[in-house]
Amino acid sequence: MKRIKTILIFVLPLAVGLFLAGSCASARVSMKTGAQLWGENCMRCHNTPSPAAYNNVDWATIGLHMRVRANLTAEETRKVVEFLQSAN
Q: CB 39: neighbour CB atoms within 10 A?
């Protein structure tokens, strides 16, 4: 029983901290525009094409693909795709 209490004393604060850190990250994403997210995420791995390089359907498909490849959230993907589609 003492061992379980000791584990909980260390694990519970860690779990709460991770939860709060995730909430803060989500708030930071919601404050960013699609253009900011595009610049921060897409340029990490490759040169970014012009937003006018593809049509709206292509950007939607590319967005789904890159969501998986770049580990983007649904909100990040939506904002980036909307930004890219706004150029067409």
A: 15
Report the Cα 80 to chain-centroid distance in Å: 10
Distance from C-alpha of 72 to C-alpha of 57, rounded to nearest angstrom: 19
Please tell me the least confidently modeled range out of 27-36, 41-50, 55-64: 27-36
DSSP secondary structure letter of residue 6 = H
59 class by beta-carbon count within 10 Å (0-12 exposed, 13-18 middle, 19+ buried): buried
Distance CA 42, CA 53 (A): 15
Q: Which residues contact 78 (CB under 8 A, 6 or more apart)?
A: 63
pTM of the predicted model as reported, rounded to 2 decimal places: 0.66
